[in-house]
Write a structure and sequence with these properties.
five-stranded antiparallel beta sheet, alpha+beta, about 250 residues, 5 strands, about 10% strand
C-alpha cells in the first residue's frame, strides 16, 4: 500500500501489475524502480520484461560520448596524488588509477594484476595485498560485507562468482570460524594498514558516485580515494612521490 501511494496508483492496480493481471505503463515501471532505488541496468531489464524498449544507454568508458567524463575522472585521481585513488566498476574492477595506486599494486602476481585488476581479488588473495595487510581480518570483513551487499542488491552473476571464489581463499575461509570482535576502544574508521618497506602505511577510504547518472556505465562507477590515517603515513606517501623512480 505504501509503495502504491508513493508511485501514484491504487494498491489494487499495483497488485494486478505484480500478479500479471495488468500491464504497467513504462512510466509506472520507472516510477516503481525509482522508488525502490533499482540500478539503471535492472531498470532496463524491467522495461524489457514489461514489453518496452530500454531507456538507459550502456556505453563503454572509452566511448567518445564519455570522453569528457573520463578525462574529468582522471584529473580527479591525478589531483589526489600522492594519495592512491582508483575508479571502479560494478564488480570493483579498476578502470582508472593514479600513480600512487599503481605503485601499491606493483608487487601483485600477474594473475591478480589484471587487466582487469579486481579489488576484491587483489586485496583478499593470500598472494596479493593480503600478505601485506596488518589488519587483514578487519579489512577483509569490511570488503566481504561490501561484496555480499552488492550481490544481494544486484544479483549480478559475476559478483556472485567473485564472492564464491574469494570465499574459498584459505585466509578468508577462516574468518567464518573466527569472527572479528569489536575493539574495546573502537576507531572512527576502519583503516587499511599495509606493511610497506618495513614501515606501516595506514589509510582510510571514501567512495563517491555520480549524483545524476542516465547511463548504466556511469551509474555503476565509483571513485575510491585513499587518505593517510596518520602523520607518519602521510610522510611515507609524500616521500614515495618525491622519490626519483616516482618522478621518472
Amino acid at each position: 500500500m505504501d509503495l502504491a501511494l508513493e508511485v501514484g496508483v491504487s494498491p489494487r492496480h499495483l497488485s494486478f501489475v505484480e500478479t500479471g493481471r495488468s500491464r504497467p505503463s513504462p512510466e509506472l515501471v520507472l516510477a516503481i524502480a525509482d522508488r525502490l532505488e533499482v540500478p539503471l541496468r535492472e531498470r532496463n531489464t524491467l522495461l524489457l520484461a514489461a514489453g518496452y524498449a530500454p531507456r538507459y544507454t550502456h556505453r563503454s568508458l572509452d566511448d567518445l560520448a564519455l570522453r569528457q567524463i573520463r578525462a574529468s575522472l582522471q584529473r580527479m585521481l591525478d589531483a589526489h596524488d600522492p594519495y592512491p585513488g582508483v575508479v571502479i566498476d560494478r564488480q570493483w574492477n579498476v578502470v582508472l588509477a593514479n600513480r600512487a595506486a599503481g605503485a601499491l599494486t606493483t608487487a601483485l602476481p600477474p594473475e591478480l594484476a589484471g587487466p582487469p585488476l579486481n579489488v576484491y581479488r587483489a586485496c583478499l588473495h593470500p598472494d596479493g595485498l593480503a600478505a601485506l595487510t596488518l589488519n587483514f581480518n578487519e579489512w577483509a570483513t569490511y570488503l566481504l560485507g561490501q561484496l555480499r551487499r552488492s550481490v544481494a542488491l544486484t544479483a549480478d552473476p559475476e559478483l556472485d562468482q567473485i564472492l564464491a571464489e574469494v570465499s574459498r581463499y584459505p585466509n578468508v575461509a577462516v574468518l567464518a570460524t573466527s569472527p572479528e570482535l569489536p575493539a574495546d576502544d573502537p576507531q572512527l574508521l576502519i583503516p587499511l594498514r599495509l606493511e610497506v618497506g618495513g614501515r606501516e602505511l595506514s589509510m582510510f577510504t571514501t567512495l563517491t558516485t555520480f549524483g545524476t547518472p542516465r547511463d548504466v556505465t556511469l551509474d555503476e562507477l565509483a571513485v575510491e580515494l585513499f587518505f593517510p590515517a596518520d602523520e607518519s603515513s602521510e610522510t611515507l606517501l609524500r616521500a614515495a612521490a618525491d622519490a626519483p623512480s616516482a618522478r621518472a
